[in-house]
């Protein structure tokens, strides 16, 4: 398949968008069989390039766990694509509704939007590029992808993979720096999906607003963990540390701080230390422990620790083998607990995106709820406990993109649940049917009745019949 070499110039991006929009209009909506064939192409890419994906991510990160990559950036993607493939015929079926007249017809048909722009991040570049294609393709759209410049090897591989299976009029990839991303966000797409930081999302939203492009923003924020007095502290710590160390905590859904009942910090810390030692007897050269993506983010995380320490926080490094991390090339940071950092510490204000975990205490569950509610709404909230009344109170009184109870991040793997944020953590949702709906236009279609009442209902002169009808229906 001949593949054009894309220029980062705005004119070239505009040409590509026009090409896809013209192809969409010329071909008309893709049939269910065509959509399934496209999904099969993407599944084939993930299977055939799994080793290439592992190598590209290892090159970009310095070290990236092979198994973690296969789970998060290959297996999970294939699951999303297969789920869409199995269900899209049902999703496509029009929805019928009752009407006032028995021979009238009211239905909703799901129509492709056209061309969707997809801006994917660096932390899971293959997952967050190819998994959204499940909903985009199931809805019958074409797509232009802009992967992150922070993972150049992965971005180049994504471009080669897509070009090997799709014509540029179907799905295409453009690579480049922040200037290219700015031009990309300003294009008049039919929909734009951005996954990344809240700060960058503000720029994306402003650019998209110029063309009134509808947005799905999957962001992040400071996702809290509330550990109840009724919870098993050891189980909670093990599950929290599993996700906090996955990809070295560089996950939008990673727990950002833990709220513990007074008197349980020591027990949680001991359990967290035990969990880390079980998973990683050593860290510095462990192929299962991922590096920080680049020097800028490494320095940012070290700065959080220095700032918290200077402001009185207790820093507890979970370093099972007692290794010296001061001399290394892989930018690894040991999992670290930050106990009682004050609210003005940077680690309590910014999304951490690394293996650092603040611990704070609360006296009663309402204090914990209030602490969460005093901050921007997070992408996720995690509650550990066996008190169902308290659990219901937490769920009812807090607002977050999603919730997992007695685990961390599991709700994101339930493909039939919508996934997205709320407020500062994002807008809109995808995954499963929610993705199909997000990238579809629900078009209302009404076929009028042949009854005389339908024809003359609004036509003057208005008589006693209409007045009597109005009097009978305008009631309390």
Automatic annotation (TrEMBL):
Active-site feature positions: 218, 252
InterPro entries recorded: Ald_DH/histidinol_DH, Ald_DH_C, Ald_DH_CS_GLU, Ald_DH_N, Aldehyde_DH_dom, Aldehyde_DH_NAD(P)
One Pfam family here: Aldedh
Domain Aldehyde dehydrogenase stretches: 11-445
Keyword NAD: yes
BP GO annotations: aldehyde metabolic process
One GO cellular component, as annotated: cytoplasm
UniProt KW Transmembrane keyword: no
Keywords, in A-Z order: NAD, Oxidoreductase
Top-rank taxon: Bacteria
An example Gene Ontology molecular-function term: aldehyde dehydrogenase (NAD+) activity
Family listed: Belongs to the aldehyde dehydrogenase family.
Protein's name in the database: Aldehyde dehydrogenase
Originating organism: Oleomonas cavernae
């Amino acid at each position: 398949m001949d593949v054009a070499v894309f220029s980062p110039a705005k004119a070239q991006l505009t040409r590509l968008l026009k090409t896809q929009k013209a192809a969409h209009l010329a071909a008309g909506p893709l049939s269910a069989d065509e959509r399934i064939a496209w999904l099969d192409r993407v599944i084939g890419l993930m299977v055939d390039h799994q080793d290439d994906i592992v190598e590209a991510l290892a090159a970009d990160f310095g070290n990236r766990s092979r198994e973690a990559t296969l789970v998060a950036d290959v297996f999970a993607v294939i699951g999303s694509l297969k789920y869409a493939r199995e269900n899209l015929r049902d999703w496509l079926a029009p929805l019928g509704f009752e009407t006032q007249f028995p021979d009238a017809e009211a239905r909703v048909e799901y129509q492709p939007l056209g061309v969707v722009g997809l801006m994917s991040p660096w932390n899971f570049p293959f997952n967050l590029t190819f998994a959204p294609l499940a909903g985009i393709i199931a809805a019958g759209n074409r797509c232009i992808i802009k992967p992150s410049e922070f993972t150049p090897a992965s971005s180049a591989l994504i471009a080669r993979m897509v070009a090997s299976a799709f014509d540029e009029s179907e799905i295409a990839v453009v690579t480049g720096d922040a200037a290219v991303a700015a031009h990309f966000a300003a294009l008049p797409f039919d929909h734009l999906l951005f996954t990344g930081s809240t700060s960058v999302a503000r720029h994306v939203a402003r650019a998209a607003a110029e063309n009134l492009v509808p947005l799905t923003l999957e962001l992040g924020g400071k996702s809290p963990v509330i550990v109840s007095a009724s919870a098993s502290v050891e189980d909670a710590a093990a599950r929290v540390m599993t996700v906090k160390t996955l990809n070295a905590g560089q996950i939008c859904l990673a727990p950002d701080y833990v709220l513990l009942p007074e008197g349980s910090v020591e027990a949680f810390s001991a359990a967290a230390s035990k969990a880390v030692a079980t998973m990683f007897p050593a860290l510095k050269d462990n192929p299962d422990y991922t590096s920080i993506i680049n020097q800028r983010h490494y320095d940012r995380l070290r700065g959080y620790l220095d700032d918290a320490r200077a402001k009185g926080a207790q820093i507890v490094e979970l370093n099972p083998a007692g290794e010296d991390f001061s001399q290394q090339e892989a930018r690894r940071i040991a999992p670290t607990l930050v106990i009682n950092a004050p609210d003005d510490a940077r680690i309590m204000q910014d999304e951490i995106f690394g293996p650092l975990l603040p611990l704070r205490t609360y006296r009663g569950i309402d204090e914990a709820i209030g602490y969460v509610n005093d901050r921007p709404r997070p992408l996720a909230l995690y509650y550990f406990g066996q008190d169902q009344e308290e659990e219901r109170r937490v769920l009812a009184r807090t607002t977050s993109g999603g919730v997992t109870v007695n685990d961390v991040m599991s709700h994101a793997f339930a493909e039939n649940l919508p996934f997205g944020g709320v407020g500062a953590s994002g807008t809109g949702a995808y995954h499963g049917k929610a993705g199909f709906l997000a990238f579809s236009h629900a078009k209302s279609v009404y076929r009028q009745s042949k009854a005389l009442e339908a024809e003359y209902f609004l036509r003057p002169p208005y008589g006693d019949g209409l007045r009597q009808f109005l009097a009978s229906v305008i009631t309390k």
